[in-house]
Amino acid sequence: MSNPSNILVLGAGLVGQAMALDMHRNGHRVVVADRDPQALEGLKNRGLDLRETDFESPRLDDLLSRADLVIGAAPGALGYRLMERVIDAGRNLVDISFCPEDFMDLDRKARDRGLCVVADMGVAPGMCNALLGFHDAHMEVESYRCLVGGLPFRREWPLEYKSSWSPMDCLEEYIRPARFRVDGEDVVREALSDQERVDCGPAGILEAWNSDGLRSLLSSFPHIPNLVEKTLRYPGTVDYLRVLRTLGYFSTDPVEVGPQSIRPIDLTAALLFPRFRLEPGEGEFTYMMVEIRGREKGQPAGYRYSLYDEYHRESDTLSMARCTGYTCTGVASMVLDGTLKETGVLPPERVATTQDRIDILLNYLADRGVRYAKEAI
Questions:
Q1: According to the 3-state scheme, what is the secondary structure of 110-148?
Q2: Distant-in-sequence, close-in-space partners of 281: CB < 8 Å, separation ≥ 6
């Protein structure tokens, strides 16, 4: 390992906690900042420096000034502003916030400062992008298909779903139009459309539907004629989500309720969050399948990557936190040791285009029990 560095983790949610502990195990000095003291409570007595800090507070500037590298794990609504603030502070950043804004708008600012800022570096977006980026550099890719989801082991009525991430970010998946590409044409369809049932191996039969997960892939790979990503849930989930959406429960338009004006989505998030929360020790799993097809050395070629990961009971770490967080910390380690030298804002498809880099990242994950099975198709 390189010399210990000062790492600042912004956000102490379940994924942020997993990343902070991983960087600490790597031998670095880790500060974790969050405005919620309850979120920080889970990291007490773990060798970390915990700071209760509002991300809009000037006190954050002092923490940024002491960091060699920042890891962003804030909710998506805060992600872009925090990215900009980290760049203004002159610090490298690896981020998983999945902000709704176009993070490439900050590329020039980061490049002018000589900084390396990696955005969306989780599992999806994130690792799936990196796999496509690697193969695009070594073959003529004609199609990319990603199916991904995280689900609790127990299917409990009425939701049959629980989440390890921000409930508002989760609800965004159900309302944000899905962008993808078919036969060279960019297509926009409503979220939850084009349902299909898929045999997901150890995860069983799951339901896939269109979600807006391609993000930067659409602009990074204008030459790839077919790009699609779908989210996975237990069969039947889409039906009740459509009912809620149709009835207006995901609406952002305020409605008058007595003397108050409220957004239905805020009430929905408040009602669902307790049900979304995984109970201590409750098991869950992550499944992702990535298929990349095209031509290699003039011949038809295709590759399938499959990930199935479960809650790690010994360390009490959720699978989605492992799969998302360790991908991010793997890339953070590449920035720290100089493996990743590019400057500017990098989408995840640009971090591992060479064989040595993709091997480093896959091996980093495998060392932590997150394993991708690769096969030719």
A1: HHHCCCEEECCCEECCEHHHHHHHHHHCCCEEEEEEEEE
A2: 313, 316
Phi first, then psi: give them for residue 185, nearest 5 degrees.
Answer: -105, 130
> What confidence score (pLDDT) does residue 2 get?
59
Parallel, antiparallel, or unpaired: how do β-strands 344-346 and 284-296 relate?
unpaired
CA dihedral 309, 13, 81, 64 (to 10 degrees): -110
Tokens read off for 170: 């989760």
What percentage of the chain has pLDDT greater than the value 70?
99
Q: Determine the Cα–Cα distance for residues 273 and 166; give it in Å rounded to an integer.
A: 9
**Amino acid identity of 335?**
V
Identify the three-state secondary structure at position 168: helix
Burial annotation 145-174 (CB, 10 A radius, 16+ → b, else e): bbbbbbbbeeeeeebbbbbbbbbbbbbbbb
d(CA 139, CA 115): 30
Whole-structure pTM value: 0.94
Q: How many CB atoms lie within 10 A of CB 339?
A: 16
- Report the pLDDT value the prediction gives residue 272, as an integer from 0 to 100: 86
The confidence band for 249, taking pLDDT boundaries of 50, 70 and 90, is very high
Question: Per-residue pLDDT tens for 53-109?
Answer: 999 999 999 999 999 999 999 999 999 999 999 999 999 999 999 999 999 999 999
Q: Are 75 and 69 spatial neighbours (Cβ–Cβ below 8 Å)?
A: no
What does each C-alpha distance from 286 to 146, 148, 292, 321 come to in angstroms? 13, 8, 20, 10
Q: What is the pLDDT of residues 177-216, one digit of tens each?
A: 999 999 999 999 999 999 999 999 999 999 999 999 999 9
**203 secondary structure, DSSP code:** G
Beta carbons within 8 Å of 117's beta carbon, 6+ residues apart: 83, 86, 87, 92, 93, 94, 95, 106, 110, 344, 345, 346
